[in-house]
């Protein structure tokens, strides 16, 4: 697969925001930012030296198709981070791209940060994300309901 992870830029933030306004994407993925302006602020925060988030953009066959990032990075007490991935080019869903990207990115995060595990949430009806988590080596830890939405929590631990 021709997959490349690159550093995020302000242009990527704008494209990502616009692409994720799709109704199907909003139904399957919790989008934290409520506006493009808020997304830009979060991006600028991620560039600071002691940022608690770290992300990359995903290119497939030369085209920008989504983002992968860790947030709530805690190298001190919890020794963990949370993972989020979103491929906004829906015609590429189900092709294994997200699984490969996740494997690559998880290795990078474990080598870059002093953490022992990475967690991830997904909605229980997002079968593609559940499959991705399992194929990338995450273990299902918990099922829960939040804001009336059934969800699942997964974790992967750093290999010793």
UniProtKB/TrEMBL annotation:
Q: Which residues form the N-acetyltransferase domain?
A: 14-160
Q: Which Pfam families match?
A: Acetyltransf_3 (PF13302)
Spell out the protein name for this chain.
GNAT family N-acetyltransferase
Q: Which organism is it from?
A: Tissierella carlieri
């Amino acid at each position: 697969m021709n997959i490349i992870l690159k550093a995020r830029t302000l242009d990527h933030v704008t494209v990502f925001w616009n692409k994720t306004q799709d109704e199907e994407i909003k139904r399957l993925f919790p989008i934290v930012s409520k506006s493009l302006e808020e997304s830009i602020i979060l991006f600028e925060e991620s560039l600071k030296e002691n940022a608690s988030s770290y992300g990359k953009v995903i290119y497939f066959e030369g085209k920008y198709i989504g983002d992968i990032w860790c947030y709530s990075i805690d190298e001190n007490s919890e020794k963990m981070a949370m993972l989020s991935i979103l491929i906004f080019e829906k015609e590429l869903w189900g092709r294994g791209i997200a699984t490969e990207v996740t494997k690559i990115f998880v290795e990078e995060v474990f080598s870059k940060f002093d953490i022992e595990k990475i967690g991830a949430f997904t909605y229980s009806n997002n079968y593609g994300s559940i499959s991705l988590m399992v194929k990338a080596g995450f273990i299902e830890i918990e099922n829960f309901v939040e804001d009336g939405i059934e969800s699942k929590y997964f974790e992967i631990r750093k290999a010793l």
